[in-house]
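Hi everyone, sorry if this is the wrong subforum. Our group has a chain we'd like a structural model of before ordering constructs, and none of us has done structure prediction before. Sequence below.
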Amino acid sequence: MKAKSIKGSSPSEIKEALEQCMTTGFKPTLAIIFISVKQDRNEVSKILDEAGIAIYGATGNGEFTGEGITRRHLQTFLLVFVLPSLYLFFRNYKKIPHIVKEEETSSREFWMFIGSLVLFLSAASIIIMTSIPVFNKLINAVIGKSDAFKPMAMGEESAFAYNRIQVFVAIVIGLLTAFGMYLKYKNTGKEFLKRLIWPSVAAIIIAALILAFGGIDYREHGIGYLIAIWMALTAAVYAVVANASYVWLGMKGSLRRSGGSVAHVGFGLFLAGILISSSKKEVLSYNTSGIPVFFGNESKESPGENLTLIKGMRTDMGKYWVTYEKDSAHPKKPLWFYQVQFEAKNGKDQFTLTPNAFVNYKGNEGLMANPDARHYWDHDVFTYITSLPDPEKNKDTASFQTQTLSVGDTIFYSKGFAVLDNLTSRDNIPQPGFSPTDSASVAVLKVHAKTGSEYTMQTLLVNKSGSYLSSPDTLTAENLVVQLQRVSGNTAELGIKESDTIMQYLTLKAYRFPFINLVWLGTIIMVIGFFIAMTRRIQTNRSSLRKI
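Answer:
Right subforum, don't worry. Here is the predicted structure as tokens:
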């Protein structure tokens, strides 16, 4: 069964709509009519009878419209529902139960509410700011592309846009965490102020020493932001000292009853670690290679703070010599692992980091990097991949140029020359897959670069069961590839090509985060505090049940 709906404000409009509907081959035989009392029902019935359509039923009970909610509907809704509701609310207002006395401003629950409200506003600001691209797309979808609307943006310093708000959240939460445990439910007397005097004095002294000798001098965004960081760090130190003191001042040294204070100490250390490490972080990967990298118009990365490493070539990175040694791929995912060796210039330290990245070459828009870090007691060396070459744009189109050389002959290329140093044959190749009758010819070349560097290249021509297989050798530093194509006595045919695309490289960013371990220490202590509090609560509940 096929059904369609038509409408009209008069019999003539209904007739026109019906005729237009039937021009598509639709032949209705049954109709149900919803009609206003203002319309001529008999005339509409006559139109349907003439078309051979039987009327199943007709009703005039109410008005129907396909135009959605109108102003009259809203007015009716307000009159029928809202106004009576308001009348009942004000009439029975005195009968509504409520707290006779509001919470005291000195009570613990009042300041817990303030802290929760601050955290809610902090989360709301982060959600709104991170959703700006979504808002722009939604507005463009509604109004279309218009010069009247300018897309919202975070600006070049997106991290600062967040931090200039969250630093004040850190100040408030740090202070609340510091004195919250000293408050009591319902009402707190003046005694808690006396308990806070010495922890407050100690916290001020410790914070002053850190600020004076710790080098917390983050002036990139002005003196106002620096002062805010100092205040947040002081609040974090206050949280640590005050809660550590409360274990003895409030709980008489009983750690079993001090889960909340222990967790607060951990949170204070966590907050202090974030502020110190972020304000004192040091960029290690300043571009000393001179290789420029384009990250895209929308990227926030600074080319001057990203270092490009050529595979196999040791590169200067501040206090370290860094070498991109090798890479490997995940067998089932577009995930690549890059092995980067760090060697301290003073010779006292050496380590290898393995950052990885999901690779989707679209101007590095699809590059999702996972960092790696080297941990020390007082700092971390943290690095991640920021750019990789696109193989679609880096295809090797160069071809080999064949030249015939004898041992001792010289061949020139654009960056230097190479000498055929030796030409030997090998029988009984000790490798899996080769038979005793297989053999190989080996050509050894000494390469002399214009820079004064000297290299050795070795290329093979394998005779496997009568078929010749050539194994070329690549000198990445000189963009040079040599292939042994044929051997006749002491004479060899060598294929030589130069190609900029054979160079393998990556671009990375490296930071030194001092005292980042305060973050991990604070996290561990915070979790320990949670477990202490949870265990104490379980034991208390069990004791209450036994009494019942």
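For your construct planning: The CA atoms of residues 263 and 486 lie 74 Å apart. Residues 108-120+161-280 form one domain.
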